[in-house]
Amino acid sequence: MGFLDKFFKISERNSTISTEVMGGITTFLAMSYIIIVNPSILSISGMDKGALITVTIISTVFGTLLSGLYANVPIALAPGMGLNAFFTFTLVLEKGVSWQVALGMVFISGVFFLILSLGGIREKIADAIPYDLKIAVGGGIGLFIAFIGLKAMGLIVANPATFVSIGPFTKTLCISIVGLFVVIIMEVKKMKGGILIGIILTTILAILFGEVELPKEIISRPPSIAPIAFKLDIKGALQISLLGPIFSFMFVDLFDSLGTLISCAKEMNMLDKNGKVKDLGKMLYTDVASTIVGATLGTSTVTSFVESAAGIGAGARTGLSSVVTSIGFLLALFFAPLILIVPGYATAPALIIVGIYMFKQLVSLNFSDLKILFPAFVIIFTMPLTYSISTGIALGFLAYIIIHLVTGDFRKLNIPLVFIGIICLIHTIV
């Protein structure tokens, strides 16, 4: 116990071993839904779902352990929501990129981030982006993810006359709606593991109504990662036409990770007198290393999870909490048969709730300045309407730059932002 206290600086950070363990368990319960949801989304791209379950867990364990042992913070990492949707729905389904090439793009974005992390360039780029555009991107991705969830439920279906309409109230849709309200009620009551419990309950209802069959075994060896591991196509990803989407990966991950780290650091009192996060460099290197390893094994961008705030709220202050969280994920490796039977409409409520949490960021948006509001509007609504995160980002940023150029408001523009605009233009045209 003395070794743990000294290694993780538990007493120094006014915590205890029991508090760190409880914090780690809380974080695991808050984010364990990713074990089910990430394979559900990525498998639509043609990747093997069993292998995805194993890779999702391994990449989460790797990133979270690195966060605990190297950065010594209670920040868990896993394949990011929104980034996995971008991987499947924008790159593979919309642009026709193979999942192997898409993995290569994730890898390249991780390498670029490694370079940008040197000397604090990554943070400087983040500072160059207008705050309201950052907010709009988060809100737009939230709306997009919620739309995917509604579609997976069957509540929204295609319509040749109106593009979309409400779907028929089938047995599976009714089951999914029950699951959605269970999650909402648990979240309102601030009960731990609400999203995971909602998925489990929805799956149980599907079994009871004969929509899903129980597996022959509950515990088994983890599925092999061979179908997707080391299958990334880096050479195929090195195309000018894919420069925009690679940038989108970087952009979304940049603000996803920085936003999570800053908000969690505030909760842990890890900000210096200038408001900067202590040991931010170690946390960012952890993020980058996890993305590169994750892409090599076969998953979309691995990033810091905002659900870590649940464990921090329970008192976690050190990396020991992250170690405990990673142990929870390791144990989940042996329950793949149960995870494989979870239907898409059972994970849909999780997508909707995560989308809502991301969408609520828009409360901080400046609604009084049309020069800001219009680009933000473009970002938020073109993401779900074009079914493309990268298109929403590109059009919104171009709108922002053009409006400020034409109106002569050059003070709001800077060299990094103009450079990003050029990339967005290339992405839009090519």
- Biggest beta sheet summary: 2 strands, antiparallel
Structural class: mainly alpha
- Gyration radius, in Å: 21 Å
Strand order of the largest sheet: 1-4
Pattern of helices and strands: HHHHEHHHHEEHHHHHEHHHHHHH
Count of discrete alpha- or pi-helical segments spanning 4 or more residues = 20
Number of strands: 4
Q: Pick out the low-confidence regions.
A: none
Mean pLDDT equals 87
| Percentage of residues assigned to helices | 55-70%
Q: Tell me the distance between the termini.
A: 59 Å
How would you briefly describe this protein structure?
This protein has 430 residues and is mostly helical.
Model description:
The chain is mainly alpha-helical and 430 residues long. The strands form two sheets. Strands 1-4 form a two-stranded antiparallel sheet. A two-stranded antiparallel ribbon has the order 2-3. The longest helix is centred in the middle third of the chain and has 25 residues. The mean pLDDT is 87.
